[in-house]
Amino acid sequence: LAKITQPISMDSYEGQEVNITCSHNNIATNDYITWYQQFPSQGPRFIIQGYKTKVTNEVASLFIPADRKSSTLSLPRVSLSDTAVYYCLVGAMGGGATNKLIFGTGTLLAVQP
Amino acid sequence: DTGVSQDPRHKITKRGQNVTFRCDPISEHNRLYWYRQTLGQGPEFLTYFQNEAQLEKSRLLSDRFSAERPKGSFSTLEIQRTEQGDSAMYLCASSRDTKGAYGELFFGEGSRLTVL
Question: Scanning every residue of chain A, which has its alpha carbon at the shortest distance from the alpha carbon of B105?
């Protein structure tokens, strides 16, 4: 199973771009990488998912290098409401894969005015 | 609201009592997951169902824990003879069956258990 680590916390200011990294050295060939956002007393919410290179949606970008041993979530122009814990999740489904989806240690992003 | 509902949202019980949590996933989702989250930690995988079949169980799921998903719809997670170490948020998530990628997990708001 992949061991997944993230920085414990990050600080930013409104309007800045924030990049949060995740290390997953033991990622398996079939594993995908997903990022989730979690506010206190709520379940995690999906942000973005990718397998390799770059993925972009309306709220974030995900950068995955060729060796796939790390990934970076990029949040453009953060606002106060982006203050939350961000988790990366690594795993795969089906085809003999483990079906266990493992969360990283989480990064608390604090956005200041 | 993600469409996944969990009940009860909060449960306070005394050590040694049994508790049961219920999860109602999004209706067309055939995959259902249970996670446990303690304060300041990321969610830890407990178990996974595809339809009514329980396909994966974590070693965290001791013999005091049992999960079911009859008829592949709602699921229950029962903890027998609760211990103080069982105090946590129990999260349920569901997803569609997708080839390769596991797709987006839709989480409920969780059931918070406090064991006195």
Answer: A46
